[in-house]
Amino acid sequence: MSAIAVARETAARLAAADAAGLNATLHWSEALLQAEAARVDALPIAGPLAAMPIALKDNIVTIEAPTTCGSRILDGYVSPYDATAVRRLRAAGAMMAAKANMDEFAMGSSTEHSAFGRVRHPFDPDRVPGGSSGGSAALVAAGVVPAALGSETGGSVRQPASFCGVVGVKPSYGRVSRFGLVAFGSSLDCISVFGRTVDDAARVLSAMSGHDPLDSTTLARSPMAVPRALPDLQGLRIGLPREYFPADLHPGVAAGMERTKAALRELGAELVEVSLPNSKFAVPTYYIVAPAEAAANLARYDGVRYGPRKVGPAGDIRAVYQATRGEGFGPEVQRRILVGTYVLSAGYYDAYYRKAQRTRARIADDFRRAFAGGVDLLLTPTTPTPAFRAGEKTADPVSMYLADIFVCAISLAGLPALSIPVGRSEGLPVGAQLIAPFCEDERMLAAAGAVERVVAAAEEVR
Amino acid sequence: MTWETVVGLEVHVQLRTRTKMFCGCRTTFGDPPNTNVCPTCLGLPGALPAPNAEAIRLATRGALALGCEVHATSVFARKNYFYPDLPKGYQISQFDRPLATGGRVAFDSPERGRIEVGITRLHVEEDAGKLIHDRFPGKTAVDLNRAGTPLAEIVSEPDIRSPAEARAYLVTLRQILVYAGVSDCSMELGSLRVDANISLRRPGDSMLGTKTEVKNLNSFANVERALEAERERQIGLLERGDRVAQVTLLFNAATGQVRALRSKEESHDYRYFPDPDLPPLVLAPEWIADQRDGLPELPEARRARLEVTYGLPAYDARVLTSEVGLAEYYESVVGAGVEPKTAANWVMGDVMTTFNETGAFPVEAGRLAGLVTLVREGVVSHQAAKRVYVELAQRPGDEPKAVAERLGLVQVSDQGALTGWVEEVLAAHPAEVARYRGGETKLMGFFVGQVMKRSQGKADPKGVQPVLQAKLG
Amino acid sequence: MSIGRDDVIHVAKLAELAVKEDDLPRLVDQLNRIVDYVAQLDQVPADGASDLFLPGPEQVALRDDVPGSVPLARPPAALAPEFADGFFLVPRHGAMEDL
What we know:
The complex is a heterotrimer. Chain A is α/β, with parallel strands linked by helices.
């Protein structure tokens, strides 16, 4: 099929999704899609992603479309440069289809914190798609695009992938350039991928991975290979960290995990119990490190060089700063900026930030030890429950933070991890998480391809 | 009652790179506003820093030239504050793990003789942009061309004991950094900036008094003046029994006064933390050693060597090493065969005059050597040679001999011509001739002078005297 | 450690965020809830691990000093809320003039 034809169909599906009230897109246009298609059709050789339409979370910058990060403070902002990931995907033949709705500046776990309205779960409009990359997840789950880029800081792709029943892959930190990904927590942020299948996600990851001289935190490695799904898992040892299987786990999720373990055994893998004792500190550690980095990363939104400017009554530069930021940032972003500023401020650095750094090192060390002990991959649930109802966790920020309890530690350790759908509980998807050692992304994807083949993801568990 | 002055200086120098600290934008001075900018130095959403290798190399050289220990691992940190010239809302600097620590600068204090001032640290950071307040009514204009320019910040220990000593320290520091090729250190172009901390205490006290910081110092002379003014202000306070408040002050060069800057509230809580966009800066020990080996001879060592090697007086050696270019030129003149002291006289005289005016050495060392040879061989007089030099500076391609001939400055030693001038002079001064013959031999100088005058300076003085003696005897 | 009203005002000032008087009590509650929650890190022993954990490269790669930066598809004038004669403009501020 020609790129022009794909573009036309994609536009029709995007229009249908918008009409259905999913609220998953922030910007797309038929004209832009056609321009993308014309560019792809003119490529001398069809790339590995030839004519694949890809949605972008709205914190990944492109020259053509606005980048708002789901925030009023960037209302109408159009980037004068493209993200490295976008340039690489285009070179591989992909078409940028739409900018997807998200929690403001990627802060949230439900995509209810967008300044442009919440995203609906594609299977149940009263529920959330997860977050913060909820728009991207919903577009893939609704069949609008085969793949979408999200971003992870503490699980923002794996968690919504699990809620929406799609594949969500977070690569090792440093394998995909962050140049052009609007920063939230720089030491945690990873451009990550949603796909209908493991292979879709792997191909997209492979096309955009590799060292980028513009991002000093990328690894000096060649791009990731696209691994072939393993025929079986003979000889593979898979660790089950006991801290990730609490007694009060949601029964549907617990059943999904039983189904996954059975599938792994059937494929020939050996399952062993391991321990990651410091993972219980991951969420509090994350809620010091990420806000501290965010408070500095979001200081550039000051109404001086770009974005809308507001001026308070005093009319001076401070009045510009305070009004632009006070009116431009939503409540969750303001809370995190305040927390981040507090934990770095004079007298509190040691009590919070330094302690969090130390704990982060311990959390990472737990994983290193588990893998050094002869385990090839780890298996955990992705989320403690299936998708929750809109409004259920917005009153208490900490209850929302706990939605990321199984994904946070991996982000702190910089490891690759993915969520694959393994069943449905009362119609809602349940996801399983596979975690690999640093830079063993390919091993993880090859194993996930095998699981995907045998597990009945569309069927009710138990 | 007497007070001891305690001064520490923070010096920012712009590192001599082609591009900025964290992006490939040019560091050219004087381009139209906001033209040397890119996503990174504008602080656009999603842009990231990529550090400049040359900036790190120059800062390392500077640190080594100042005798610092350069650390194998140092860490970039974010210094957080809001200001319209600071695009990201934080400056990338170094904090608790700087590039280098523990150096020293030795120099002659105007009051205490030879002293050493400790260097606490040298770290790299990025510059802010420029604010212009007088161009648009009611507005401040922001130009970000300078934003992200690489700087080294050099912090001294509070080892300086007077305003004059502060100036002498700066002169020496600047000399070292220029020698090492680290920075142009031009205060006019803003590539060297100074903040001074000053406090007073009773002689013998080990505790430091409350210090104030003086900013906006745009010349070494003003550093000295500002510190004098602030010392007087503090003495006034202390002698009245008042306390010195910890404030930032601005020096007004027009009035010679310091005034307290409205205190920027909360400005001291910079919330430094390691920049997560930049992994640690790791320098191999062998690379650091290579940088040390690659340092040029520094002013101190060069001065000593010029004294010993060429037998120059201390004064000459100091003048000749005050600028690296001057010392280089001097040594190439000596290398071209000129006797060292003669070369020193030339370089400290006419050459330095041209250098101070133009900042250049238009007369190639070999040509200057040729000119000196003409003097030694009696082809031109010393006075004539100075005129030839001026002409050569205008026309650097010409040969000294040709210039001397063109200007008619070549000395005449032809006996016939000399005898003619001598006879004319003796005929014109019969009285003096009689007095000479009567025993007043010191009149010889008078006759030589008259011959020189009559010949319009062309007569060779060494040839004139024997002819005179023959005619008078 | 608990956060009071004055702490929130102080931190908001550092972060240049205008906080409405009416929002203060709720913010104080929420920040306390968050800070109380993260305070469980007090249980983590201080020994052993280092202070700086970095997931990416162990050392920074340096760039050659060669001009060439990411080009701007649109000039600064097209981005700025207020711009004239090549300059970004902001309101003039007394204390600003001093530096």
